[in-house]
C-alpha cells in the first residue's frame, strides 16, 4: 500500500513533467536493498546515486560502482566545496551523496533514487526541497522483529540496540511524503516505481 503522496503537485497547462529525486529510507531489516535491486531490474533507466566514502574497499567492491573511495582530506575538501547533498560519519568513516551526478541525471530527465538513512534524508530535503521522501516499512512491528532475530548473527545487546533504532526510525514516518509497505519485494518495488517514475508497471 502507498500512503498519499504529499510532495509536489501535477504540472500545470503547458508544463512538462519534471524528473524528481526520490529518497528511500527505512529501518534495518526492512528489505531496502532487495526492493531497490528489483526496482533497478524493473526500470534500468532510473539513476541510482553512488555514495562517496572514506572507508577502504571490501573484497569484491568496485570503485565507482559500489562506492567512490576517497581519503579523508579529499572528502573534507568536497564538504568545503558544497559537493554533497548530505554527508555523515559512522564508525570512524565518512559517507556522502555527491550532488553533481544527481543533478545531471535530473536535468537529463532521468528520475534519481538515493538509499540513505533518515538523518541523511532530512539533509537532502533541506538541500533539495522538491525531493520526494519515501519510507519503506514492514507489514508490522512483529514482522520486522522476526526478520532481525531470524538472522541469528548478532548478540542480544546489539539486536536490542538495532530494534531501538528501528523503532525511532519508524516513528519518523510522518516526516515522509509516502510509505511503501514491504509485504512482498516485487510488489513493493512496483509501488516504489510508480512513485519514482509516475507510471504503473504493466
UniProtKB/TrEMBL annotation:
UniProt keyword terms in alphabetical order: ATP-binding, Cytoplasm, Kinase, Nucleotide-binding, Transferase
Major subcellular location class: cytoplasm
GO cellular component, one term: cytosol
MF GO annotations: ATP binding; GMP kinase activity
EC number of the protein: 2.7.4.8
Family classification: Belongs to the guanylate kinase family.
Keyword ATP-binding included in the entry's annotation: yes
Catalysed reactions listed for this entry: GMP + ATP = GDP + ADP
Residues binding ATP, per UniProt: 26-33
InterPro entries: GK/Ca_channel_bsu, Guanylate_kin-like_dom, Guanylate_kinase, Guanylate_kinase_CS, P-loop_NTPase
Name of this protein: Guanylate kinase
Function: Essential for recycling GMP and indirectly, cGMP.
Name of the gene this protein is made from: gmk
Superkingdom: Bacteria
UniProt-annotated location(s): Cytoplasm
Keyword Cytoplasm: yes
Pfam families: Guanylate_kin
Gene source species: Haloechinothrix alba
Stretches assigned to the Guanylate kinase-like domain: 19-197
Amino acid at each position: 500500500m502507498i500512503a498519499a503522496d504529499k510532495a509536489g503537485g501535477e504540472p500545470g497547462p503547458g508544463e512538462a513533467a519534471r524528473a524528481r529525486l526520490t529518497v528511500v529510507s527505512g529501518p534495518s531489516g526492512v528489505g531496502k536493498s532487495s526492493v531497490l535491486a528489483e526496482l533497478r531490474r524493473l526500470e534500468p533507466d532510473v539513476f541510482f546515486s553512488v555514495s562517496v566514502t572514506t572507508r577502504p574497499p571490501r573484497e569484491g567492491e568496485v570503485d565507482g560502482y559500489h562506492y567512490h573511495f576517497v581519503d579523508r582530506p579529499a572528502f573534507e575538501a568536497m564538504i568545503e566545496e558544497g559537493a554533497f547533498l548530505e554527508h555523515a560519519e559512522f564508525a570512524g568513516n565518512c559517507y556522502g551523496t555527491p550532488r553533481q551526478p544527481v543533478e545531471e541525471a535530473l536535468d537529463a530527465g532521468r528520475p534519481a533514487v538515493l538509499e540513505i538513512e533518515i538523518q541523511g534524508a532530512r539533509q537532502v530535503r533541506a538541500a533539495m526541497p522538491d525531493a520526494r521522501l519515501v519510507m519503506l516499512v514492514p507489514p508490522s512491528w512483529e514482522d520486522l522483529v522476526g526478520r532481525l532475530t531470524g538472522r541469528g548473527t548478532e548478540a542480544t545487546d546489539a539486536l536490542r540496540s538495532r530494534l531501538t533504532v528501528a523503532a525511532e526510525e519508524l516513528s519518523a514516518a510522518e516526516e515522509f511524503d509516502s510509505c511503501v509497505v514491504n509485504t512482498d519485494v516485487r510488489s513493493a518495488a512496483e509501488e516504489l516505481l510508480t512513485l519514482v517514475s509516475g507510471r504503473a508497471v504493466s
